[in-house]
Amino acid sequence: MMKQVPDPSECKYGAFINTCSKMACWKGPGQECGDNVSAFIRYGQCAPGLRCCNGVCKGCLNGNCYSESCHPSHSFQLRSDPYMPERHMDPLYRIFDYYSNE
């Protein structure tokens, strides 16, 4: 569980009031984070402008960047999953696609 921060100036990426009404530091690029409410309490939240993916804050903040690729867990089987085969549209579909001319 994250500890309360007595002085917000100690926080490199800023501070906020968490769900437990305690002062906490925003997490920066490459730092451990939570991606749901219970994980927010345990690991903290990414600073505004960053995204928590697979438990690590991704993005750039104040010239400090962490840009390792962000793939969802394999249980979701989304198209961004590198192990899922890519689906190609039938070329005939494009002929009948109403929005293809826009």
Characterization of this structure:
InterPro entries: Neuroparsin. Pfam families: Neuroparsin. The chain has 102 residues and is an alpha+beta fold. The protein is built from two helices and five strands. A hairpin with a 2-residue loop joins β3 (51-53) and β4 (56-61). The radius of gyration is 20 Å and the shape is elongated.
**Tally of individual helices:** 2
Radius of gyration, in angstroms, nearest whole number: 20 Å
Strand order of the largest sheet: 3-4-5
Low-confidence stretches: none
What is the terminal-to-terminal distance? 51 Å
Indicate the CATH architecture of the domain at 8-66.
Irregular
Round the mean pLDDT to the nearest integer and report it. Answer: 78
The helix/strand class is alpha+beta
Strand content: 15-25%
* Percentage of residues in helical conformation: 10-25%
- The CATH class label of the domain at 8-66 is Few Secondary Structures
Order of helices and strands: EEHEEEH
The coarse overall form would be: elongated
According to CATH, the fold-level topology of the domain at 8-66 is Omega-AgatoxinV
Task: Tell me how many strands there are.
Answer: 5
**Largest sheet, if any?**
3 strands, antiparallel
